[in-house]
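Worked example 3. Consider a protein that binds guanosine-5'-triphosphate.
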Amino acid sequence: MQVGVVGKPNVGKSTFFSACTMAPAEIADYPFTTIKPNRGMGYVRVPCPHALLGLPACKPKNSPCLDGMRYVPIELIDVAGLVPGAHAGKGLGNQFLDDLRPASALLHIVDASGGTNEEGNNVPVGSHDPAQDVAWLHDEIVSWVEGIIKRDWEQVLRTISAKGSIKPEAVLGERLTGLGIKPTQVKAAIDKCGIDPRKLAAHVVHATKPVQIVANKMDKAPPALVQKLTAMGAVPAAAEAELALRRAKEAGVINYKPGDADFGIVEPSKLNDRQRKALEYIRHHVLEPQKGTGVQQALEHAVFQLLGLICVFPVEDEHHYSSKAGDVLPDAHLIPKGSTAKDLAYKVHTELGDHFIRAVDAKRKRTIGADHALEHGDVVRVVSSK
Ligand SMILES: Nc1nc2c(ncn2[C@@H]2O[C@H](COP(=O)(O)OP(=O)(O)OP(=O)(O)O)[C@@H](O)[C@H]2O)c(=O)[nH]1
Ligand SMILES: [Mg+2]
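Given these inputs, the predicted complex is written out as structure tokens:
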């Protein structure tokens, strides 16, 4: 699963991306630092059933376990900044937006301090209203999708109205599915919006690119601006502080896990004055008021609340919660809330779905049927005829 990191230039997209993934990305205090997209793995936290079941350990394959917490990977794509008119080629144009096609959700990074204007240039803190950026970005993305739908539009309209009346879904189907709409939803989309490119675009964006707003730079943001954004559903964040904490952790200077509300200093004598002051600043101005930097919280909000995903653990041996080879709780899968045991079987392997007989809820030692809706944290064995 992929999540796109978007917003106007210079708001902290690459800082947020780097903090989540620890992948290198160029960061600088001016617009258009990022040109080519950065890709890397971020993680969402899920309590590991091994701890809850009282097992001594697990043997994860796809998602590391740390102190009873599983870190389930999510691919992040950090793209170039968008400026007004980007869909029509302004700024760096709209080419890079194509990199966002496979994204299941977007994290819209906003400079909550109001210290960057529409073009991403630095202005005094509080002089730009970041709430305006939210409506604008939505319009910009809809316009980009509209442009894709409208390619060779005269030709499309001629084909649809040609003799023998070809159905609009036959002409527009590939275009819409290319934008992420499922083939089964194409007709419903056209029935709802007609062949109005703007309406179709808004529908596609709504259905395929839900947006989580991130009120970044909260460390220097006027509280009123942060409040205005949180009232719009934003998660406040300080990406720079998160990046500093993760780097300090990597250097062995502090104990800190993503999402923690505080850190511990490992060896005070290893810190110079500047580092100590910076860490104290982060503790008092970011962690204490917000109970964390908000970076991990924003990503998890997008995955669990916005996309409504749950995490389940398929196993082959329900007694030992393991694969056939004996690896305890090897994999964690993110699936939509409401997914059934059979949906999970298909997610693991098409054959497992095709030959599904029944499943076992391994925690409760209970047989469950194909239509049984799974819950967050379930451990499931699928029994198949092959
Ligand atoms: N105060 C503060 N500054 C931040 C924060 N996050 C990022 N910055 C700073 O904002 C500036 C821009 O950061 P980038 O991560 O390069 O921004 P970007 O959105 O990727 O910029 P482009 O690639 O040019 O679109 C840098 O000077 C960062 O150090 C934050 O949480 N607080
Ligand atoms: Mg960048």
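Take a moment to read the result before moving on. The radius of gyration is 23 Å. The CA atoms of residues 219 and 317 lie 49 Å apart.
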